[in-house]
Specification:
The protein is of the alpha/beta class and 187 residues long. Helices cover 30% and strands 27% of the residues. The chain is built from six helices and eleven strands. A seven-stranded mixed beta sheet has the order 5-2-1-6-7-11-10, sandwiched between helices. Strands 3-4 form a two-stranded antiparallel sheet. Strands 8-9 form a two-stranded parallel sheet. It is globular and about 50 Å long. Pfam families: DJ-1_PfpI. Belongs to the peptidase C56 family. InterPro entries: C56_PfpI-like, Class_I_gatase-like, DJ-1/PfpI. This is DJ-1/PfpI family protein.
């Protein structure tokens, strides 16, 4: 039976940051489930960079069904967790069920992949203190306030925590995450 990986997300998550790891991990032979606040069809977004804008732009993205609600997740059934970015982490960090899930993964030292604004979730459960991370560069002050050492590079590995800045860093992010997974939770 293949190892299971959990992706936690919600509406307004960045499409590529959910679907790229979903497909890449399935390609490696993992069983991947997407959890959200409730079982429903999620509406993702596309963040892009356009000349003349001071920050990224946002457009409607793909829709995708959540396999289960956060309240239905048993963290013990999963070998690793993926935390995509987009705007979803801004409101998901307040979800008590998700906070329990995240704490369980860190308490068990299971592999965690986070990207873009995803580290807002791990910061909310005080799991970044003393760690090295990267995130969307605008979050550098947030990462420092959470007690993390911020590095503006494609991917940062700190034990079982693998972080990346945004979807352009997917190849480096997944390459490093798969190295951790192959050691801790082979497919």
């Amino acid at each position: 039976m293949p190892a299971k990986i959990l992706i936690v997300t919600g509406d307004a998550a960045e499409s590529l940051e959910v679907l790229y790891p979903y497909q890449r991990l399935r390609e490696e032979g993992y069983e991947v489930h997407i959890a959200a606040p409730t079982r429903k069809t999620l509406r993702f977004v596309v963040h892009d960079f356009e000349p003349g804008f001071d920050t990224y732009t946002e457009k409607p993205g793909y829709t995708w069904p959540a396999d289960l609600a956060f309240a239905e997740v048993d963290p013990g059934e999963y070998a690793a967790i993926v935390i995509p970015g987009g705007r979803a982490p801004e409101y998901l960090r307040n979800d008590p069920e998700l906070r329990k899930i995240l704490k369980a993964f860190f308490d068990s030292d299971k592999p965690v992949a986070q990207i873009c604004h995803g580290p807002l979730l791990t910061a909310a459960v005080d799991s970044l203190r003393g760690r090295r991370v990267t995130a969307y560069p605008a979050l550098e002050p947030d990462m420092q306030a959470a007690g993390a050492g911020f590095q503006d590079v494609e991917a940062v590995v700190d034990g079982t925590l693998v972080s990346a800045r945004a979807w352009p860093d997917h190849p480096a992010w997944m390459r490093e995450f798969l190295k951790v997974l192959r050691t801790k939770a082979p497919a």
